[in-house]
Structure formats: C-alpha cells, structure tokens
Amino acid sequence: MMEKKRSFRNLMNGFSVHKHAKIFGAIPFVIVLIAVIVVVALGATSSSYTDAVGIGIDFEGGTILTVALGQDAIDNYEENRVRITEAIEEFGVTVSYVQQQSANNAANSAIAFRYKNIDSDDSAISKRNADIRNAVDKLFNSTEFRIVLGEQAEAKLDEVKTKVGNILNENGIDDFDIALYKEETVADSYISVAYENIPETDEDMKAKNQKIRLAIDAEYPDASISDSYSSPKITYESIGATAASDLLEKAGIALAVSVAIILVYIIIRFTLMSGFAAIIALLHDVVIMFCLTVICRVQINSSYVAAMITIIAYSINNTIIIFDRCRESLKPLKGQKNIDYVGIGDEAVRATMTRSIYTTLTTMVTVIFLAILGSDSIREFCVPIILGLIAGLYSSVFLATPLWSAMSISFDKTKEKYAKRGAVSYDKPEEEDKTVVKDEEPESAEEIAATAPRERKPAGTKPSNHIYKYSKKNVNKKK
C-alpha cells in the first residue's frame, strides 16, 4: 500500500500540465468532431437535425402524451411502445422521444411520447392532439370477464367459446378473445373473455358490459364471474412555438449573465488574464457538456439548462482554487521581470490535483445514485450533471492553467515592449525656465561664472536618452 502511495506522489511531483498542453487541448476538439459526426449521421437518417441533436419540446415546441398503463407499461413496454407510436404517427406527426415512467407503485407507471407540433394555429394543435388521444384510448379501452370454473375450466373451454361468443355477437361485439388460464391452485383456474370496447361513451359501454355479464351469469350460475373495465388515463401537454422561443431566449440570457458576473468577479479578485482564462474554460465546459449530451442521446430541455448553470458554478470553484495558489506564489515576485508562470502554474496544479479529483468524485457518486434510483425527470437533470462534472474537472486542471500562463507571459512581453518604446523620445525637450537674478555687476570673470543661472536636475535622474532631429536647412551649406 505504501509503495502505491509513493508512486502516486512521485507521479504528482513530476507532473507538468504544460508539458502535454497540446494533447490536452486537442482532446476537446476530438469530442466536438465526434458529436458533429453523430448529428450529421442521425440527421441524414431521420431528416431532422433538431431530433438528431435531441432538442426537447421545451425549446422547439411540441406535445407530451402520457399513457398510464400501470404494470402493463413495465411488463409489455416494447409492445405498447410500438402500438402507441404507430397510432400517433398516423396523424402525420413524428414521435421523437419515448420515455418509460416507472413509479414506486407499479399501478401508476406510464409511457410518455414526445412529438413536434406540425400546426401553427393553437386551435388546430388542440384538435389534432385530441384526435391522437382518442385513437390511443381505443387501443387500450377494453373489458375482461373471468369465469372461474376450477377443475372444469379446461373441459368447458369449447362450450364457453360457443355460448359466450353468441352473447357477444348479439351485443354487437365481433372481435374478442376467449382463453384458458390455469393457476397453481386448480380451483382458481378460469376462462378469460376479453374484447375492446366499441367507440361509445363510457356510460353506454358500462351498461352494455352489465348486460353481457347478466347473460353470462345466466349461462353459468355456479361459476364465479368477475369483470374489469379498463380505460387508460391519457393526458397531454402542449407547448407552443412562441413559448418555446421565449424559454430559449431566457435560458440564453441567464447563461450570459452568469458568465459575465463570474468574469467581473475573477478580474476583481485576481487578474485580467485569470478572468479570460476562466471564461474560456467555462465556454469549454458548456460546449463539451453539450457534445457529450448529444453523443449519449440525452434529451435537451429546461432541466438541461439548470444542469448547465450548476456545472458552470461548480467548475469555476475548482478553477478559482488553482488561481488562488498561483496568486499566492506571485505575491513575492511582484514587480519582477521574466516570471516563471509555467512553473508557478504546474506547482499550483500539483498542489490542488488531489483536492479537485476527490471533490468531483464525491459529488459524482451522489449524482450517479440519484440518476439510478430517481425518476425519469430527475435522471434528465442528473445525467447532464455527470457529464458536466467530467468536463469541468478536465478544464480546471488541464486547460485553465496553461491558458493563464500563456496569456500572462504574452501580456508581460507586450507591456515590456511598449515600456521600451515609451522610454525613447524623438522630440527635442523644451528648455526649462531659467531664473536670472540681476544684482550688482560682477567685478571679475569668476563672479560672472558664479552668478550665471544654472539648470538644476532632480536628484537621482539618469541622463536623458534624447534623439534630436534637425531640418535640412541646418545641414545644407550655402554656396
């Protein structure tokens, strides 16, 4: 165990983020390239690049249709998904996203379908959604009778099919299913009679089901008969294009304001170069988080914006810790030339590397458990958070410090260049006012020299480096 610790410490002591800065800077471009390939490939297949990116209806406008099927939403998810999708797309819309919504109580489980509205008028959108709802409702609006015959169930199956089938035909039901179900306890074996409800009102259908049950009771008075009338709970929520664009605009404003405030704070507390480096690192987090979300096929909606702002605040914290170490190392060197920004940056990264990794992993473990155990809406928030934590750790450790050192070195060279240029003057200095005191006339040449006005220079001044220009008139000789 000690050898591992020593090897890790030795690795950290010799680690230089600037040594491999080009490699660290190329990795984000590779991720962006992969995301572009994914979007182009999926967009060409689905003929919709917004669907390829995974833009949710929160930003694009559309409808969420939720079908509560209870346990059947879990047991027969794939079959139900295909049936409902086909029913929805018969109305000209395209289902872009399907989500299974599991609940602690299986009876509340449902399947949600998202599709983009193809109508621009709100009344037309409402009418189309109502038609889609009715079509889906017909798929699962059914009735089932269970005729418990126990040991005689298998022997009377053909008889039940004939007699009950005639009863159903008399009531206008031609499409039905009669099947035998054997239970572990033979006395509980039963024959199931199931059929889809014809398009009538609920009250009419319940009255018809009651009439059918009375007829079955008359045929099998000794049997135990139970009935169930099922109609799934179908709800839909529609977001117009105007509301979606307004939400997108507000999300952009929120992101821009948060970045601007962070920039001002870092410039005040640290330096201008630190602020620029931090903002570039934050933009990296936003872009890479978006690309990873596209690659992992996560829906981009309002929860994604909340996750992005959370990551910006979390990532800047790691960056500030590193810049604070750099500032402490720069204090004794204030005013000096040729400062080793690369060495200071490497030392700051080595000193904070363990802290950055541990804090990120601790947060990530909690978020991963939330994504696994939480509902689908929580998962839509947690998955972008996990991707953003990875991007934020990478930028704060491997990108922010090399950017800061490179910009600081360039800034110092620029200042030194302009300082040298400002020290050289091409104009002849104006003569200072000379004060001449007229008193008694001097009697000798020594007194004349003593009483002559002298130019005084401030103490400690160096000889001026002036370059004088003379006009051509002073140089040309007259013939």
Q: What is shown here, in short?
A:
The chain folds into 3 domains: 62-139, Alpha-Beta Plaits, CATH 3.30.70.60; 142-230, Alpha-Beta Plaits (2-Layer Sandwich); 241-414, Up-down Bundle (Multidrug efflux transporter AcrB transmembrane fold), CATH 1.20.1640.10. It contains 16 helices and 8 strands.
Q: What topology does this entry show?
A:
Layout: H1 2-13, H2 21-46, H3 49-53, H4 57-60, E1 62-68, H5 72-75, H6 77-89, E2 95-101, E3 110-115, H7 122-140, E4 142-148, H8 157-170, E5 176-181, E6 190-196, H9 202-219, E7 224-230, E8 233-239, H10 241-269, H11 272-295, H12 302-330, H13 341-373, H14 376-423, H15 445-451, H16 472-475
Helix pairs in contact: 2-11, 6-7, 8-9, 10-11, 10-12, 11-12, 11-14, 12-13, 12-14, 13-14
Average residue pLDDT: 77
Proportion in helices: 55-70%
CATH architecture of the largest domain: Up-down Bundle
The name of the CATH superfamily of the largest domain reads Multidrug efflux transporter AcrB transmembrane domain
Beta-strand proportion: 5-15%
SS content category: alpha+beta
Number of helices: 16
CATH topology of the largest domain: Multidrug efflux transporter AcrB transmembrane fold
